[in-house]
Amino acid sequence: MTTTTATSGKQLFRSFHTESSNEENARLLTADPKTVDYELIYFKISCLAATARHLFAFGKINWKNSFPTDWDEEKYDSPFGLTPLLHIRSQGKELTLTESIVIDFYLAKKFDLLGSNEYEEHVIKAFYSSIHALRDRSLRCMTWTYADKRKEAFETWTTENIPRWIKIKEQHLERNGSNGHFFGEKLSLADIHLVSVIDHFAELPRGEEIVALFRASPLLWKVHETVLANPDIAAWRESDEFKEIVKGGKIVYAKSRF
């Protein structure tokens, strides 16, 4: 839903104000997911949409994975001109969520992946945030840093930054009983997000070296394997669509050339 100003003729980015009231939009967000159609918009890579895709697989609901074909034009259908986007439609009504964190939190709440009480929810979100930050910082400081600095950055990240991050998380995993979950006794958003971020690293040049750091941690890798043991998530990861996304990511990140 894009508009054009009458005075300047410039296209405007999608507004959060819709034809429905805020109260109606709130009801759409909380509707039974079996009565709603979901369309996730993101590029054919893992990165920022990987967790949402895993969450949809876990939730076993009707959803569509869509990929931009002409983002220079399609960006105006986004409130901030960025992806991912989640279009939510039901009974002639539609709204759009943007920003990966917002989308992930929304779906995790919908599918009961934020623990059993408010304290567990915030702890799970804290782990999620730390996992998210690891990927975000690595993109800025390693993957897409200045070309002549990338090899040095890769060495720093694989010998210092990621090992330090892993060591800290191992302490918390041990305190949680080494049960394959970051917090609590059941699958959570944080667990799934770890898998998605490892997937992201796997798509990078020399990605196998980064993944090996996680694999070398029995406690972290147990979380990874616990998530993959979910049959619905496993089925998604075996799909042709998932494999095409992984292939697309490797093509994109090949340009980083560590």
TrEMBL record:
Q: Give the GO biological process terms.
A: glutathione metabolic process
One GO MF term, please? glutathione transferase activity
Check the record and name the InterPro entries matching this protein.
Glutathione-S-Trfase_C-like, Glutathione-S-Trfase_C_sf, Glutathione_S-Trfase_N, GST_C, GST_superfamily, Thioredoxin-like_sf
GST N-terminal domain ranges (all copies)? 36-115
Span-the-membrane segments of this chain are none
Please indicate which superkingdom the organism of origin belongs to. Answer: Eukaryota
Query: Per the database record, which ranges form the GST C-terminal domain?
Result: 117-249
Broad EC category: transferase
Q: What is its EC number?
A: 2.5.1.18
Query: Gene3D superfamilies under this entry?
Result: 1.20.1050.10, Glutaredoxin
Sorted alphabetically, the keyword list is:
Transferase
Describe the reaction catalysed, as an equation: RX + glutathione = an S-substituted glutathione + a halide anion + H(+)
A Pfam family (short name) is GST_C_3
Q: What is this protein called?
A: glutathione transferase
Which species is listed as the source?
Answer: Lobosporangium transversale
